[in-house]
Amino acid sequence: MVGANLKAEAMNLMEKRSGIEAEMNVIIERLCQPGGPGLFGNLLDSEGFPRADIDIPAVRADRQRLSELRNDHKDITEKIDQKIEVLHSARLAPISESDKDPGLNAQERVVNLGTSSSFGNPVGGGNNSMDVDVVVSRPFATVDEITDRSPAADDGLQLGDQIVKFGNVEVGENLLQRLAAEAQTNQGHAISLVVMRQGALINLTVTPRYWSGRGLLGCHFRIL
C-alpha cells in the first residue's frame, strides 16, 4: 500500500510538472519568436532608449513568470526524485522467503527498470512509466534558444526540451564545458540524446556539424 501511495504521489507531481513545462514552453516560444527579445536580449535600442518594436512590460512579465516557473519546476523535480528514490529502495529490498512466489523463477523477480524505445519515441518500460523515471528522471539543462534550420532544429531538438542525457554527458560538474567537448569530439557523428518534452522522455540523435550559422548545433543550453 505504501508503494502504491508513493507511486500515485509521484505520478501526480509528474502531471503538475508537465503543466509547468507546457506553460514554460509557451512563454519561451513567445519570447523567442522572430523579432522578439529572446530570453535575455536587451530591451534597449542602440541609443539606450526602450525598444519601440516590443511590448516591454509584457516581456518583463513573461521573463518574471518564466523565472518563477523554473523555480517551481526545480522544486517539484526534487520532490519527484525523493519519492522515486524511496520507491526504488523499496523495490530493491531483499525479498523474504514468505514473500516469494514459488511460481516465479529468480529472473522473473528482477525489477523491470525499462528500456529505450525506437528513435523519436517516448522511452518506455513495460506498462509502468514510473520504471523509466527510476533510471533517468532529472534533466540537467534546457534548450532556451534554437535557430531555424540549424543542425539542432533539423535533427528534431525543440525549444524548451530538457536534456537528460547528451551522449556521454549526464548530471555532474562542469556541464557546459562537457557539452561543448562532446559536440566537438563528435563533429560529423550522431550523438544520442534523451530529452524530456511535455513530461515524456524522448530519444533523439543530433549530429554536430558546420552550417551557415554559429556553432556546431545552432542552439543554446541553459544549465538547470
Which regions contain 5 or more consecutive residues with pLDDT less than 50?
Answer: 95-136
Major sheet strand order: 4-3-2-1-5
Helix-residue proportion: 25-40%
Global morphology: flat
Mean pLDDT: 77
Instruction: Count up the helices.
Output: 5
Structural class: alpha+beta
Number of strands: 5
Task: Spell out the blueprint of helices and strands.
Layout: H1 2-31, H2 56-92, H3 129-135, E1 141-146, H4 151-154, E2 162-166, H5 175-185, E3 191-197, E4 200-206, E5 219-223
Antiparallel strand pairs: 1-2, 1-5, 2-3, 3-4
Helix pairs in contact: 1-2
Structural notes for this entry:
With 224 residues, the protein is α+β, with helices and mostly antiparallel strands. The chain is built from 5 helices and 5 strands. The chain has helices at 2-31, 56-92, 129-135, 151-154, 175-185; strands spanning 141-146, 162-166, 191-197, 200-206, 219-223. Strands 4-3-2-1-5 form a 5-stranded antiparallel β-sheet. The model is unreliable at 95-136 (pLDDT under 50). Residues 59-86 form a coiled coil. It holds the Pfam family Nas2_N.
